[in-house]
UniProtKB/TrEMBL annotation:
The keyword Iron-sulfur does not apply. It is an enzyme of class 2 (transferase). The lineage of its organism: Eukaryota, Viridiplantae, Streptophyta, Embryophyta, Tracheophyta. Belongs to the protein kinase superfamily. STE Ser/Thr protein kinase family. MAP kinase kinase subfamily. SUPFAM superfamilies: NTF2-like, Protein kinase-like (PK-like). This is mitogen-activated protein kinase kinase. InterPro entries: Kinase-like_dom_sf, NTF2-like_dom_sf, Nuclear_transport_factor_2_euk, Prot_kinase_dom, Ser/Thr_kinase_AS. It holds the Pfam family Pkinase. GO terms for molecular function: ATP binding; MAP kinase kinase activity; protein serine/threonine kinase activity. Its EC number is 2.7.12.2. It comes from Kingdonia uniflora. The keyword Coiled coil does not apply. It catalyses: L-threonyl-[protein] + ATP = O-phospho-L-threonyl-[protein] + ADP + H(+); L-seryl-[protein] + ATP = O-phospho-L-seryl-[protein] + ADP + H(+); L-tyrosyl-[protein] + ATP = O-phospho-L-tyrosyl-[protein] + ADP + H(+).
């Protein structure tokens, strides 16, 4: 994410809201975890480190499966309601953009709410918002009418998201959906006076239909709170623990592709930090724990502090005496394979060239937004000053969604 003096005030405020919400929220069930943020003065870039959610969003699930079974949805929504209850009851925040794309789930079956960039803080449980932001198609009637609104607006959006996930269809079509309701004044009558959408009673359980109906009550004052919905029969129906969310998510996604995505992400972040400015370099310590090892030049470093010292010395040697130009990594090839039950082994090889940023090329990392040699028209052979080979063993940490480097081997070839 990037802030500059030319960015509109609203966008800057959204980013500040995101950082503030994440920083102040403790580890809470149903909310994505925040690991830190740092600012790069030279570029004006702000980077936010969030929990890695390897299963993607419920929108991703729907792209692969037409719908999500009721028992699975019940368990997912229960955990998400805990997060929403915390946002409303403890933090006094209206999320304002609840939708399948902002409801994430990892391969361990933990659903999380994310994207707090347009959340609004209220001073009390009876305060109201008056701004018009969020994804239009999931907005509640009071928001579409441009009235003041509060926490019930999130409950309406949750009901629409659940309707879509359970039935496989969004209840409002392009002809009568909220977008056109805003554009055509006559269509406001539809959202105000026509019955709210409801799942087919012949295809879905009474508990599921009742939950949707409760969320999609037109009168915001009558809608139940997130805390009240935790006691709804649809949530209690599957509390016996027989639903395996992890097995459901893992059955959907290609484990090999997820492993490749993880390898790409880790590789990009490691070399961006290594070849980046000095003020970011200390963040590399978070990639290791006290049992991690680094092998380089027939010497073994153990633990995050010792590894950081060794890598810092290597980094200073590569930087040389002529900044900003220095030796930087060019990833030319990346391979990965499974390591144990949940880990991944990553092998990277490439070249050193004189430059000022990490680059990718050939069969290396495929990362959107990263510079590529095909675009820069750089002849690697003529620019190459040395080669490197590096292997990482990544393993999951004690916190869900966090990985650390347990073993690293580095070879530099002149």
């Amino acid at each position: 994410m990037y802030i500059s003096p030319f960015v509109v005030k609203e966008k800057r405020q959204q980013l500040l809201n995101e950082i503030r919400t994440l920083c102040e929220a403790p580890c809470c069930e149903g909310l994505v975890e925040f690991h830190g943020a740092f600012y790069t003065p030279d570029s004006g870039q702000i980077s936010i480190a969030l929990e890695y959610i390897d299963g993607g969003s419920l929108a991703d699930v729907l792209r692969l499966r037409k719908h999500i079974p009721e028992p699975v949805l019940s368990c997912m929504i229960k955990k998400l309601l805990h997060g929403l209850s915390y946002l409303h009851g403890v933090r006094h925040l209206v999320h304002r953009d609840i939708k399948p794309a902002n409801l994430l789930i990892n391969l361990k079956g933990e659903p999380k709410i994310t994207d707090f960039g347009i959340s609004a803080g209220l001073e009390s449980s009876v305060a109201m918002c008056a701004t018009f932001v969020g994804t239009v198609t999931y907005m509640s009637p009071e928001r579409i009418r441009n009235e003041t609104y509060s926490y019930p607006a999130d409950i309406w959006s949750l009901g629409l998201a659940l309707f879509e996930c359970g039935t496989g269809e969004f209840p409002y079509t392009a002809n009568n959906g909220p977008v056109n309701l805003m554009l055509q004044a006559s269509s406001f009558l539809f959202i105000l006076y026509d019955p709210s959408p409801s799942p087919s009673k012949s295809l879905f359980s009474p508990e599921f239909c009742s939950f949707i109906d409760a969320c999609l009550v037109k009168d915001a004052n009558v809608r139940p709170t997130a805390e009240q919905l935790l006691s709804h029969p649809f949530i209690r129906k599957y509390e016996d623990g027989r639903v395996d969310l992890a097995a459901f998510v893992q059955s959907i996604f290609d484990r090999t592709q997820r492993m490749k995505d993880l390898a790409d992400m880790i590789t990009i972040h490691y070399y961006l930090i290594f070849d980046g400015p000095d003020e970011l370099w200390h963040h590399s310590k978070a990639l290791y724990n006290e049992d991690s090892t680094l092998s380089f030049s027939e010497k073994l470093s153990v633990g995050s502090s010792e590894i950081f010292t060794t890598l810092s010395n290597i980094r200073r040697t590569l930087a040389g005496d002529w900044p900003p130009e220095r030796l930087v990594h060019v990833v030319e090839k990346l391979q990965c394979r499974a390591h144990g039950s949940d880990g991944v082994a990553i092998r990277v090889s490439g070249s050193f060239i004189m430059g000022n940023q990490f680059l990718i090329c050939g069969d290396g990392v495929q990362a959107e937004g990263m510079p590529h040699f095909q675009d820069l028209s750089i002849d690697i052979t003529s620019k190459r000053i040395g080669k490197f080979q590096e292997q990482f063993i990544m393993e999951p940490g004690s916190v869900i969604g966090r990985y650390f480097i347990s073993k690293q081997e580095l070879y530099i070839i002149q």
